[in-house]
């Protein structure tokens, strides 16, 4: 298993984001409980977020997030995954 940094870019429609945020956060909380998602939170400077995921590949990291209600409701307009090697410090569960 490797660690991946997944960046989400959200729609500018703040009402749409707010409508589906509770369901989105519950889904991510479930992924965290199962050990797939290590960390998650919004990024400054625009409607975006960073998620740290454990997976075998970039494709698998994105596939593990496919069930996110923000994907279903098209709140996420773009996303990308890149393998991330932690050199200093430790991530919980990694």
Describe the structure.
The longest helix has 20 residues, at 14-33. The protein has helices at 14-33, 58-64, 69-72, and strands at 2-10, 37-43, 48-55, 76-83. It is globular, with a radius of gyration of 13 Å. It has 94 residues and is an alpha+beta fold.
Rg (CA only): 13 Å
Give the mean pLDDT. Answer: 94
**Terminal Cα span:** 9 Å
SS summary, helix count = 3
Jot down its keywords.
about 90 residues, 4 strands, 3 helices, alpha+beta
Topology of this protein?
Layout: E1 2-10, H1 14-33, E2 37-43, E3 48-55, H2 58-64, H3 69-72, E4 76-83
Antiparallel strand pairs: 1-3, 1-4, 2-3
Compose a concise summary of this entry:
The chain has 94 residues and is α+β, with helices and mostly antiparallel strands.
């Amino acid at each position: 298993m490797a660690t991946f940094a997944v960046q989400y870019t959200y729609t500018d429609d703040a009402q749409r984001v707010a409508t589906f945020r509770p369901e989105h956060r519950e889904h991510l909380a479930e992924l965290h409980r199962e050990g797939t998602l290590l960390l998650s939170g919004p990024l400054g400077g625009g409607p975006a977020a960073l998620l740290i995921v454990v997976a075998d590949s970039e494709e698998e990291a994105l596939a593990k997030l496919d069930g996110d209600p923000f994907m279903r409701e098209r709140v996420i307009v773009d996303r990308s995954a890149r393998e991330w090697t932690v050199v200093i410090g430790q991530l919980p569960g990694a």
